[in-house]
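Why does residue order matter? Because the sequence determines the fold. Keep that principle in mind as you read this record.
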Amino acid sequence: MMPPPIDARVCFGVGLLKDLCLSAAPTGDVMLSSAINTDTPGTCTQVLTQAGSPASAPELCVIAGKTVTVQGTVTVQGSRALVLIGADTVTVVQGATLEASSTSNTNPRRAGAGANVGACAKPGAAEGDVGGGGGGAGGSLATKGGDGGKGNLNASMGQHTTQGGKAGAMQPAPTLLRDGCTGGKGGDSQSIGGVGNGGAGGNGGGAVYLIAGTSITITGDVFASGAGGDATNNNAGGEQGGGGGGTGGMIGFDAPTVTINGHVVANGGAGGGGGGQNTGGKPGGDGTTIKWNTQATPGDGGTGGPQGIRIATGAPGTAVVLTTSIDGPDADTGGGGAGGGLGIITVYGTLVGASTVSPAPTTHP
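Structure:
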């Protein structure tokens, strides 16, 4: 039996999101050129659920048309993951960006579409102490995040060396569209700012999925990287442990032919710097995007303390084939936050190109 013509189809997808059925066949050409919030009424052509949504998997905000074209910078936020369906084609044109990354270093900070919803292996808690908290662990998804650095290595007067958080296990191959995983919180200093002042873990990257009846063409960029681990860069962050970086999120493509000549990236964020005796460190760099095959920059450590005291930066993030040496450094004050693991890129169909993609895509011909 022949499939229905493009103009009459209502069900789409052969892979992870198989047979997504709309209430009516898509009509008209959709042009996307400005920010999208998937929670805003009227934004989605249709909202669909997945198994476990919305509690443990994001709902799907579907935007559908006969063709869907992304031009300009389209930043995507909201609790729902974004799914673009083109009955014929989906195109991200040269110079355009579909951006679902989470960030700790933008103003305002941002959580990508569908972030912080999916089930994750939770990082172990970092210890706190008046002499310096341990660093937070990196989030784990397609690869394992790093462990947080130790704090208060020069412990004395009844204190103890604080342990950094331990990263959870990498997650199994997904059976639904999901987001990235958050990094772990750094340990509290318990002296300046009180309990709760450890650096927050970075958010995991968001989730986007593109489906087309004939072809997907990416000449521009699609990003879903994780945020850097946080830190409090003033005296309230003194001797706190740095936060762990979040993982990259998930990007999916489903079409008979998928051509990628731009950047497609879901990298992990870097760890936040540990606090010195006077001030906290700085947030770790957000997961890289255009610099797709380089690691996010660690957050600097804080300031203050006697000559020779060890103050820790955070650990770098992750990128394609760069997934080791991401444990947070140890310190006499607050331990460094760890780097977050890689996200997921999956392709259903014949893949053409894809020379600037991180992590390496999982293909399903």
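The mean pLDDT is 94.
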